Amino acid sequence: MLRFWPRSLASQTALVLLLGLALVQGAGLTIHALDRLDLQRLAQVREVSARIMGLYRQMAAAPPQERDYDLGEGWLPPGYVATVSQNPKTPTLEVAQPWMQRLVVVNLSMAPLPPQLRPREVRIFGGVEEGRIMVSLALPARAWLNVEARIDPPRPWHSPSFLYAFLAMTLAAALLSLWAVRRLTEPVRTLAAAAEALGRDVNAPPLPETGPTEVRTAAAAFNLMADRIRRFVKDRTELLTAIGHDLRTPITRMKLRTEFIDDDETRRKMLADLDDLEAMVSATLAFGRDAATSEPVASLDLAELLQTIVDETADTHPDKPDHVSYNGPSHLTITARLLSLKRALANLVNNAMAYGGSAHVHLIPPDPHAEPPVLTIEVIDSGPGIPVDQLDRVFEPFHRLEVSRNRETGGTGLGLSIARNIFRAHGGDVVLVNRRADGQPGGGAKAVVTLPA
Ligand SMILES: Nc1ncnc2c1ncn2[C@@H]1O[C@H](COP(=O)(O)OP(=O)(O)OP(=O)(O)O)[C@@H](O)[C@H]1O
Ligand SMILES: [Mg+2]
Asked: Which candidate, 410, 420, 409, places its Cα nearest to that of 451?
């Protein structure tokens, strides 16, 4: 039973409404039909009774010797058989049910007859279910009138057009409910789509605040929330850049003062540290600048982008041509921000080259049956891998495994946090795993990027 229970709110509501409608319509039709059957039975019994009494009056008024003759004339209505006999005719039908007896007697007694002509005894057989009724009435002067009449089976509705009209009405009501349900659940779908869009892009356009009051209120609340998130992100980024900016002057001052240190070794170390500090501040400032400039989302070919990154990396390492490769479809279109995505992916490839000695990029297209569709990019190297307890920490800003912030061996340690930021802003994510499942060093690392297709 539960297997047929639909999942979506719209289908569930529609199903409940349609079942309710079918129930109400079915009950209405049954009540109507039962009432009509009852009414028809009454009308038929009344008509039959009136005819029988007509016959009876004629027989009772006629002289006894003419009675047989009268009935042979064939003036009886169709479906009626009447005989006059000395004794009541032996019935072929069961004795009528009490309610039928009462009904017939009441209707018979409604006929206008002088009291001395009224039948002294009445026997009633058959009924509506049998389709026939047999009434024997005692005539004056010891004779009996036996009348048998057909009772047509009652029909629950009079004409087929009633059924058609009923079906049309039901269909109209069903269509109306389906439309109403769609209309009711549409705002939920719109809100879900908007939330999804906001997850991919904080600067997604606001929801239109139109329509019924509830929809407008929900849209306004959603827009307000999106606005607060945007402001929060902006404030944080501005704070970061402000700090970075203000640190520059003291660093420059310190560099100047370092020149006055006499000890060569100490001076060299101080200057190196200050250079590192300066690089970190510059990276922070660059990050803040990037975050502030909101690049528009557009259609782009991810396969071509990856091939470009791989080609560019190969160009900068002419000594190791077969250490860089791309594997995957030659075209795959997605909607994303080209420059940010390129920076994020390039950092993964550069990390693989710098710390793993090679970078093999795999693009795995989304599984068409998966819901929602997600594509995967893997950047695989053959370096030492990353200690298990560091797999997540390397995403922290300025966290590096190599302690020396040497420009030659690496950067400032901001690359992975920026990359994760970018992928998450696209509604995706990135994780680092070791290719060796036993957690031992060696075997290389693998960066796994997931992006909505
Ligand atoms: N494929 C890898 N294999 C081994 N270690 C890695 C790998 N990728 C990253 N790491 C470690 O994670 C650290 C952080 O990487 P991240 O890209 O954030 O900074 P970075 O490369 O040092 O500097 P930059 O900001 O220039 O990218 C690196 O310093 C390195 O120690
Ligand atoms: Mg890096």
From this structure: 420
